[in-house]
Design goal:
Alkaline Phosphatase, subunit A, eight-stranded mixed β-sheet
């Protein structure tokens, strides 16, 4: 039964959705099945992928609402976080209404993003139909509801008549949502739908799963796309084998030749590469364990460092006691403790590279924890031997950045599978650098530049080196094909600018303050250029900021980011970690001269530490993970300082003697910037 298209709601920010048909005869069947990857891959012409069901904890009603609106937001951004009770109420003439629909609309309207539940069905002149098995549950009909919560045609009956009823609905509606039977009967029905699929029909099969139980990722198959029997992807995820629930609506509308409304944030699903069933199963299993192993692996690394320090202290104590018993005038120095402090700090700095290795192997939990610790300490000891103090931080910085760039450009997906990756199971980010990496890499790279420049003097050449490293890292973190981080570019630009200004000779004038203020704005211009060049304007930044249709859209973006940052601040142990990071930052600034005693107050190291702290603070203000970036930056800075304080006894600090041209003073005079 046809249903007239409702008029745009008052909060609509676009023109009415185009509904003219351009490819008569095309149709789409969206079937919810009790299938697994093996069953979908064995279906005729079916391309298979892993679908991110929701952003946050999996709730079936929320996934269905997201499918219908083609957009989503974190469940914690809703008030209340859980969707209202929704159920199917039959009406006359075969139509039906979703009860609780008005509550769902009000809940969506209160979020800091334009969400339009039911937009998919309302984009079709004849609405959508739903077919299911009577008594087996009909919640999936929610995906067929229009903006009024109405389903144009509903057909409930026995399992034996399901296929015939789907065919009857397909004759009246271009989109049919169907609940297939449970067990083997449902799989047989899916095979029959695929085998009897008319020309021009798109068959979408989505795994049906109850709430919870780790179903944030669901198996999904499509038949009817160009290049059948391959792996699925979408620009939403930019990852082979991964797509999002919000990609279904744009895919359906594009297949039917209809315009995709601007309110839909998903992207059409595509095929990419030969179907690798074992690889997809491995990816699914890996993504389910990444989040739970992160802190544990980090804890093992820190415990290993603590154990090394304890053993080194015991060894130094024994050697000191032996020297005193032999009446030595000068007891043996604490060489082992200095080595343990130095190597342990380097081991932590090697973590971004080490986790890529275990991501390639995908071992069990215990083996992965041990492998990361052994790799980090092995690489740390090797770099300490090969590079004289204090240049060893150069090694983890160069290797980590190069490895991340190669992984992104080669499409090997190691970062996504690693313990420091974006953690796609959360549903917020699927590619690029996660927030844990952004400020940490900034500190690591600035420290590497200081290591190369030591012993340094304030000069334009030193400042140029620091600025160049900052520009390179900003390009890497901002590139849509590599880091894909808006906040990453801003925090790197701010940190590198501070470090550069510290290294410039002359006074710290008002002109330099202006440069510091303008640096993040210039970074945004650079990021826009990077997006246009590397992603043809479809990158994260241009998609969310430059393509915003109004000031309200920009406001929504800011509200979402700062709301998420505030939630992160209250999350678990983050209040304590943030307070500790702030206390350490303040103490470090007050004791800066003593902190840099091992390098004699070298200006390059002063610049690196100041720039790194700035990156952490700015990242906290610009990223939705908020305080996480400050905590990571302060911890990485602490590791750099620990490395410096682990100075070999044979290395003497090179004192920095400032010249008249290098004195820092705030005035309005010349600043050395032409």
């Amino acid at each position: 039964m046809g249903v007239a298209k409702p008029a745009p709601t008052p909060n609509s920010r676009s023109s009415a959705v185009a509904v003219a048909r351009v490819s008569t005869g095309s149709s789409v069947v969206l079937a919810f099945v009790p299938g697994q990857e093996r069953l979908l891959a064995g279906t005729l012409g079916m391309s298979v992928g892993i679908m991110s069901a929701t952003q946050g904890a999996y709730v079936r009603e929320q996934m269905l609402l997201d499918i219908g609106q083609g957009a989503r937001i974190a469940s914690s951004a809703y008030r209340p976080s859980h969707p209202p009770a929704l159920s199917l109420l039959a009406q006359g003439s075969g139509a039906a209404q979703m009860s609780g629909w008005q509550a769902a609309l009000h809940r969506a309207d209160d979020t800091p993003q334009l969400l339009r539940p039911g937009l998919l069905a309302s984009s079709l002149a004849d609405g959508a139909g739903y077919a299911g098995v009577a008594g087996a549950g009909d919640l999936d009909a929610l995906a067929a509801a229009d903006r009024r919560g109405r389903i144009a045609s509903v057909s409930l009956g026995s399992s034996a008549t399901l296929l015939a009823r789907i065919a009857a609905l397909r004759a009246r509606h271009r989109l049919v949502v169907a609940d297939l039977s449970d067990g083997a009967a449902g799989i047989a029905e899916l095979h029959a739908l695929a085998a009897g699929r008319p020309a021009g029909e798109l068959l979408i099969a989505v795994q049906r799963a109850p709430d919870g139980h780790g179903h944030e990722l669901l198996w999904t198959g499509l038949a009817g796309l160009t290049g059948g029997g391959r792996e699925l992807t979408a620009r939403t995820t930019n990852q082979r084998g991964l797509l999002s629930a919000i990609d279904l609506a744009p895919t359906i509308l594009e297949h039917l030749g209809l315009r995709v409304p601007e309110e839909m944030r998903g992207e059409p699903i595509e095929t990419d590469g030969t179907l690798d069933s074992p690889g997809l199963r491995s990816l699914m299993a890996r993504l389910h364990v990444v989040g739970g192993r992160r802190l544990k692996a980090f804890g093992v690394l820190l415990y290993a460092w603590a154990a090394l320090l304890l053993l080194a202290a015991l060894r130094d104590g024994l050697r000191r006691g032996a020297a005193e018993r032999r009446d030595f005038a000068e007891p043996r120095p604490r060489a082992a403790s200095a080595w343990a402090m130095r190597v342990g700090a380097l081991a932590v700095l090697w973590a971004p590279a080490a986790v890529l290795v275990t991501a390639a192997v995908e071992p069990g939990a215990a083996v992965e924890y041990a492998a990361i610790a052994l790799l980090c300490f092995g690489l740390a000891a090797l770099s300490d031997v090969l590079l004289p103090w204090p240049r060893a931080p150069l090694a983890p910085a160069v290797v980590s950045v190069l490895a991340l760039v190669i992984d992104a450009l080669a499409g090997t997906q190691l970062l996504m599978r690693s313990l420091l990756g974006p953690n796609p199971i959360i549903g917020a980010r699927f590619y690029g650098f996660g927030n844990e990496l952004k400020s940490g890499l900034a500190v690591l790279v600035l420290g590497a530049v200081a290591a190369v420049l030591y012993p340094a003097v304030r000069s334009r050449r030193a400042a140029l080196a620091m600025a160049g490293a900052g520009i390179v890292l900003a390009v890497i973190e901002g590139s849509a094909r590599i880091g894909a981080g808006v906040g990453g570019v801003i925090l790197v630009a701010a940190g590198a600018t501070v470090a550069t200004l510290v290294l410039l000779p002359g006074s710290f004038s008002r002109r330099r303050v202006l440069v510091l203020i303008c640096a993040p704005l210039l970074a945004l211009v650079l990021l826009a250029a990077i997006d246009l060049l590397t992603a043809h304007g479809s990158g994260h930044y241009t998609g969310s900021i430059l393509h915003a249709r109004s000031a309200g859209d920009l406001r929504d973006v800011l509200v979402r980011r700062y709301t998420a940052a505030w939630r992160e601040l209250k999350n678990h142990a983050m209040p304590f970690a943030t307070a500790l990071a702030l206390a350490c930052a303040v103490a470090g600034e007050r004791m800066r001269e003593r902190l840099l005693t091992p390098v004699g107050g070298d200006p390059a190291w002063v610049a690196a530490l100041g720039g790194g702290l700035t990156a952490g603070v700015v990242g906290t203000l610009s990223e939705d993970s908020g305080p996480v970036l400050l905590v990571v930056a302060v911890f990485a800075l602490g590791c750099l300082c620990a490395y410096l304080w682990g100075r070999p006894l044979s290395s003497a600090a090179t004192p920095y003697v400032p010249t008249a041209s290098a004195t820092i003073a705030v005035d309005g005079g010349s600043d050395g910037i032409s």
